[in-house]
């Protein structure tokens, strides 16, 4: 049986249910041919009481976005664009860790299923050979200091050729097909991702951040021992990464030995920085 290529959204939804081996993730599915933003729609569903694990998927987005409200390039039929509703019942400071959970799940699936060398650039970029193939965006509603609803969006480039990307992205973006994965069956990939994601989510909630951070660091070589440039607003600093803190912050050792936790901003390895 195929994995959904060329099928209608309704048929893809039904096919996903056949493939899934999860308990909660993806059991309620809202699949659209076109949408503004899967995260925005999932947030509305979460506010209306949609259960944890409910999924919003779209063939294309007109207002897809990534971290820092950057636009996420979402061409029809060439990517996987989805958002998952979570209710972790944890302090708001734990939200960044759920970005890491999703990134680990996506990178792991790419490595296992396609034998491609996927890595993670803190906190939310999944790369293949230093080009971005996927990204994560976690957005939360909090009440009394605790997360009430958490929506985690995932975008993954599946079928783009280099020429399919806008000129400004061609040197920085890639797809599974461009890296040699061949024809990717999106529904099967989604099923594999949801299974891996649910497994890591449940383990994180049972065992805490330790196992998650070890797996993240194994997939993110630049997060421990790399020289990096950190841009946060108008400020730019350089230093050496020293792992991930218990709250998901990137730890950077600056001149003089001070360890600074980085929770926001853009981090690039110095070998990638041209200026």
Explain what this protein looks like in three dimensions.
This protein has 6 helices and 12 strands. It has 275 residues and is an alpha+beta fold. The chain folds into 2 domains: 211 residues, BirA Bifunctional Protein, domain 2; 51 residues, SH3 type barrels (Roll), CATH 2.30.30.100. A 7-stranded mixed β-sheet has the order 1-2-3-7-6-5-4, with helices on both faces. It has a 5-stranded antiparallel β-sheet with strand order 11-10-9-8-12, with no helix packed on it. The model has no long low-confidence stretch (mean pLDDT 90).
CATH level-1 class of the largest domain? Alpha Beta
Write out the strand line-up for the largest beta sheet, numbering strands in chain order: 1-2-3-7-6-5-4
Shape: globular
Order of helices and strands: HEHEEHEEEEHHHEEEEE
Biggest pleated sheet? 7 strands, mixed
Strand content: 25-35%
Can you tell me the number of structural domains? 2
Architecture of the largest domain, according to CATH?
2-Layer Sandwich
Strands, total number: 12
Unreliable segments (pLDDT under 50, ≥5 consecutive)?
none
Mean pLDDT across residues: 90
Oligomerization state: single chain
Our measurement of the CA-to-CA distance between the termini, rounded to an integer number of angstroms, reads: 50 Å
**Would you tell me the structural class of the helices and strands?**
alpha+beta
Count of individual helical segments: 6
Fourth-tier CATH superfamily name of the largest domain: Bira Bifunctional Protein, Domain 2
Radius of gyration: 18 Å
Helix content: 25-40%
CATH topology of the largest domain: BirA Bifunctional Protein, domain 2
